Amino acid sequence: MKIVDIRATTVAVPLEAPLRHSNGAHWGRFVRTLVEVETDEGFVGLGEMGGGGESAEAAFRALLPYLKGHDPFQLEALRFKIANPTASLYNNRTQLLAAIEFACLDVIGQRLGVPVCDLLGGRVRDEVPFASYLFFRYAAEGHPEIRTPDQLVGHARGLREAHGFTVHKLKGGVFPPDHELECYRALAEEFPGDRLRYDPNAVLSLAEGLRFGRAIENLNNDYLEDPVWGLEGLRAVREQVRVPLATNTVVVNFEQLASNVLRRAADVVLLDTTFWGGIRPCVKAAGVCETFQLGIAVHSSGELGVQLATMLHLGAVLPNLTYAADAHYHQLRDDVIEGGPLPYEGGAIAVPTAPGLGVRLDKDKVARYAELYRELGGYPYDRDPGRPGWYARVPNERFADPTVSQEVTL
User: Fold this and answer.
1) Most buried pick, 187, 208, 307, 399, via CB within 10 A?
2) What total number of domains does the chain contain?
3) 171 labelled catalytic
4) Which CATH number characterizes residue 178's domain?
5) pLDDT digits over 48-85, tens only?
6) Both 131 and 274 in a single domain?
7) Per-residue pLDDT band at 163 (split at 50, 70, 90)
């Protein structure tokens, strides 16, 4: 079997509302690039990558001369063809590799008639639990703003009732730490039996990270995620705070994982199928974490249904997955896969059982959201539409004002 074509289509899929984060915002939509790898036997495998727009489409097309005639089963050769570690210093193709790897695994599963998780060792669970993943956000049509503790708790309550979440992750770093601490404590008070996690995306100073970490030590925490930047910063917090620390920012490859094993800075490594260059590297990293008693969770980088499927197959095969996964998925208004968004049941999503990734593209929706992308274009992830001229620093000292209610026009 040989690869004969690679196609890429960038789409913009609407979110319920613009989501605020420490470095800017998601401006009311996710921009994702869908990838189709076609073989000479007629199989079409699916991949997905965040953002990119026209440049991502061109980048994927540019890989065809590298991969035309390549056997999708030859995944290790694929890795070196696309992301040789020395050449990658110049071309940085890790996320491109991930999308192509997804598609090749999809093709292999279809060819053999088995789901991708069976190619990775076989499932140890039939569903993957998820956290609620709460954002501060601007108001949008039919969806109110989230800025105050009461608004946040009300939103979390609604998600809990709708989807069954019993783990709640607050994306922070938007408002001053004292305000976000008040919000976090309000969640703990409202849901005393549920577990919590807080992620300010590494923008707190060491002093603020320590202060926040100490202030939540008595709560039912899963972990404190990236309170400060860098392995050394995390080590400093870990030495002085009695809450497990997690990261998805500074342990995203095996070199960094080795450093964290030798001198532990993070207790939990959040494995992202895109950031690590595919599902298979995440499985390999999870094995290292199991050996050295590091916790793992499945990270979300803003997925549609194709990448969600990769997260589900990853979660299905990891025996040491003891934390709920992250997902932005419930923030979407729609999806591009046949049958619509995959449903939550009891806070979890079932692992697909059909061959390959187990999801197929809805061609009409892909066309609709490709047109929406052409109409709206991309957006600057590292800017906030409600704060013209603002940009984040690390550590950040210029937080949004939690007393001001804002509407934005996008």
Assistant:
1) 307
2) 2
3) yes
4) 3.20.20.120
5) 999 777 789 999 999 999 999 999 999 999 999 999 98
6) yes
7) very high
- Active-site residue identified among 70, 171, 313, 328: 171
pTM value is: 0.97
Are 57 and 75 members of one domain? yes
Closest Cα to residue 351, out of 311, 323, 318, 302?
A: 311
* Domain of residue 70, CATH code: 3.30.390.10
Taking only the tens place, the pLDDT of each residue in 254-277 is 999 999 999 999 999 999 999 999
Spatial separation of the C-alpha atoms in residues 301 and 50, rounded to whole Å? 8
Residue 299: active-site member: yes
The helix or strand, by DSSP H or E, that contains position 129, with its residue range, turns out to be strand 127-129
51 and 178 share one domain: no
| Averaged pLDDT for residues 33-62 | 93
DSSP secondary structure of 132-158: --EEEE--BTTB--B-SHHHHHHHHHH
Distance of CA 389 to the CA centre of its chain: 27
And the tokens for 373? 């992308």
Q: What share of the chain is helix, strand, coil (3-state, %, to 5)?
A: 35, 20, 45
Rounded to the nearest 10°, the torsion over CA 171, 172, 173, 176 is 170
- Helices 279-291, 254-262: crossing angle, 10 deg rounding: 10
What pLDDT sits at residue 87? 87
> Can you give the pLDDT at residue 225?
98
Residues 356-378: tens digit of each pLDDT: 999 999 999 999 999 999 999 99
Same domain, 95 and 132: no
Q: Please answer whether residues 145 and 405 qualify as being in contact, where contact means their C-beta atoms are separated by less than 8 angstroms.
A: yes
Helix extents (H) in 263-295: 279-291
Same domain, 201 and 229: yes
Spatial separation of the C-alpha atoms in residues 314 and 116, rounded to whole Å: 9
Give yes or no: residues 214 and 292 share one domain. yes
